[in-house]
Amino acid sequence: MKVTQIYAYPIKALRPMPLDTARLTKQGLEHDRRFMLLKVREDGSFQNVQIIYFPECARLFQAIDGDDIVVTHRPAETATQNQGPDPKLRVPLRPDTAGLGTVDIQLFGADTRAYRMGAEPYDRWFSTCLGYEVILVYIGDGRRRILAHSPRQEAEAEAERERANTNTAPTTTTTTTSSSSFSWLSSITSYVTGRPQKPTESEEDDDDWLTFNEAAPYLVASQASLHDVSSRLPPGETVDMMRFRPNIVVDGDEVTCWEEDYWGELLVSPRSSDSGGGGDDDGSKQEIDDSSDSNSNSSRNRTCRLALTANCGRCNSINIDYETGRMAEGEAGTVLKKLMRDRRVDAGDKWSPIFGRYAHLLPAQQRDAVRTTTVDHQDTSIGAVISVGDEVKVTRRNAERTVWRWPKT
């Protein structure tokens, strides 16, 4: 099994940006979803711009050029020909937030404060392109809590279940599971050994949090399952993977459709041969330059592990036609309905069909410390680089499908 596609979304809701190579962080692919748009309502409040409600954002293309995100508006022929004051807009990847105003945001039940990039040129350019007033915001040093399904939370829940099954009480009445400042590894270690673990400074700084991703830092999907979706359409029609907005797409000769429902953990490592790119290259993909990384030439920085902790329930966004920036017509506009027939497989999200798995980057040595098994690769995980063509191995399978339990808001 190999990585066949990588997508990043520097500005949330805009068209996916395909990559050949990307660096991983605990909060997602580098630069992923650090910006988002907010629509200004008549009463002055804001609405999060998400692709399901604003399908026209599919015609806003984004690419990284040096230290900037370059956004280009390419309206479909049938769409309103709104064009910004300039053909393209450049947005700095790492803007200076000094002096910028702020706005409070709630996304997927988790709150944060973001920085307003400013009316000129950002708000004006996007507003002109879209035909309604929006503002551009940057996450900066803001953090959104992960409300469920982080590896730490899953490990704690697993330890609780194991304790309940064995009817064994902890050896101490003081535990660490309620403190969000404890890394998930320290929490599970305290359960296993019965000793509370004081977090190190680095663990406190590296706690679980999100940028403008909705429920997890990564979304993993398989090409085999996409083929199954396309098979539900009339002959000659296919569904583009962009509709499902994943970060990492995998495929292989022996991968069967919906097999990922049971994946618990993946190991991604460099392909055994540098020849062969793992897919067609049409020249449209980019690489995130990692030449500044002192470990970039080290094989240990090319191996990472991902914990797949939850299913991704789907909505009407998978019915969007990315060529028109509107809901698709005909059979292509009924993909959600077709999947409702047999893909409502998560008891915790019983009205939504499932496609893809939410994932988190695992810290180095987690597997060794918790599961007492070893991996053949020494890796740093955080800051690891993945590329199209990298080999993927399932290192843990779940006996049953995971159940969605995001808190209701």
From TrEMBL:
MOSC domain span: 191-395
Annotated spans, Disordered: 150-181, 269-300
Coiled coil: none
Biased amino acid composition, Low complexity: 165-181
UniProt source species: Apiospora arundinis
Biased composition (Basic and acidic residues): 151-164
InterPro entries, sorted: MoCF_Sase_C (IPR005302), MOCOS_middle (IPR005303)
Domain of life: Eukaryota
Protein known as: MOSC domain-containing protein
